[in-house]
Structure formats: structure tokens, C-alpha cells
Sequence to fold (287 residues):
Amino acid sequence: MPDELEPEVPRPDDRRLSLRAECERCVGLCCVVPALSASADFAIDKAAGQACPHLGSDFRCAIHSRLRDEGFPGCTAYDCFGAGQRVTQVTFGGSSWVQEPIVAAQMFAVFPVVRQLHELLWYLTEALSLPRARSLRRDLQDARQATERLTEAGPDALVGLDLAAHRRHVDSLLDAVSELVRADAQPGAPDHRGADLVGAHLAGADLRGASFRGALLIGADLTGADLRTADFIGADLRGACLAGADLRDCIFLIQQQVNAARGDRGTKLPEWLTRPGHWRPTVGRSG
Fold:
């Protein structure tokens, strides 16, 4: 569409480049493994492990260029953090669930595990880049190395992994990082951890250093809000209006959250995230 913004290109020295999806090296796992429910995000119902009807024989989406127009905005927001190519090329040595059906069930079980591990690697890599988290650097390095080792395990070990226990350990470190980063943002920074802020009117608000960990911000109006050093880990930003908002120096914001929100040319993003092509040059509350 002519009024779409051109996506921004991430800096080539970003260490998180290895955690970005390379669809050409995957076998369409994100189009097969998750279950879909007909909703504002997906136009159809689809069972887990069932291929989307729009998945081609080349493992590419046949409607990729018009997903939003066809009723699949949820697909445009999804990010596997590079788990698709990892599972396909490394864990299963280039095998295809179509050509080798015997590996399908195990491949489908491994994919969400590796995706979560790669998401943790993304957060840990970001945490290690934050000057205020310097005192936790050794613990963060150990956690990242341990997470990387887990991704190198075979299919059986990955399926049997106690992922919840590992996540709890990493989450406790990331929480400590968040406290250090947000400590000096402003006195009495808002704590919206786990809050229900669906449709909340926060336009123009000073939310520096706020915690939105696990918060529901679906459809919230954050137009022009100052969100620097705010923590967004696990926040649901579907349909949230970020027009003119300042998200520079916020922490643990991921591309999937940005893709699911609505922003414009005035939205200021962290340098490692890309401006979605479907964002408009300007957007109002109903845009």
C-alpha cells in the first residue's frame, strides 16, 4: 500500500540478529504447529499440528503480502525468534515433516520449546547490553550460556526439558535487571505489573520507568506517552495506540509486541526493533 511506512533495518552489529527468523531455512513450522481460533487475529480455526490451508508446498505463505487484508493480523505479529530454522536445520538436520512424517510429532513438540529458549536468549542478550545491569553481568552470562546449551540438546532432551524451572530462574534475573534499570527513572514510577489496562486512556502520560510486566494493554491509548525505561516483558500490546510515543530506552520490548500495536512515523522505537510496514504515517485513536 502506498501510504505504508518503509520498515527500518536493524543495525548489522546487533548480536540479536541470530535470533531473527529466516523463513527460507524453515519448513513452515509457525504455519503448522500453533492452533488458530477464528477471531480478530485469525480468519479461521485450525488445530495444532494441522497445516494452514495457505501454506504452499515450498513452505511459504501463499498470502504473505496480504495477510492483514485476508484477516490474519496475528500472523504478521508472530515472531519465532529464529527457532524455526534452528529446529529445522540443527535439531532435525534439515528434515521435513512432510517428507519424513515419522519426525513430525516430535518436531512439532520441540518447536515451541526452542522458541521459548530463543526468546529468553533475546532478553538475556538485551540485559547484558544495559549499563545499569553491570553488577549482574556474570549471572546473566551464565544464564545465557546455560540457555544456549539447552538449545543444542537433541529432540528427546528438549521435549523432556523442565522449561518452567529454567524460565523461573531467568525471569528472576530479568526482574532484578528491571529494578536496576528503572530505579532512577522518576520518583514513584507506576507499577502496572499484571494490570488490566485494556482500553486504558494513557495518552501523554509520563510513564518513565513504569513496569508493564505481564500487563494487558490491548487497545490502550498510549498516544504521545513517555515510555522511556519502561519494562514491557510479557505485556499484551495488541491494538494499542503508540502514535508519537517515546519508547527509546524501554526494556524487554520485542518485535512481536510492536507488530501487534499501532504506531506512526512519530513513534520512537529502540534501535534494535523495526518499524512495521503496516504502520501508517499518522494514526489517530480510531486509525
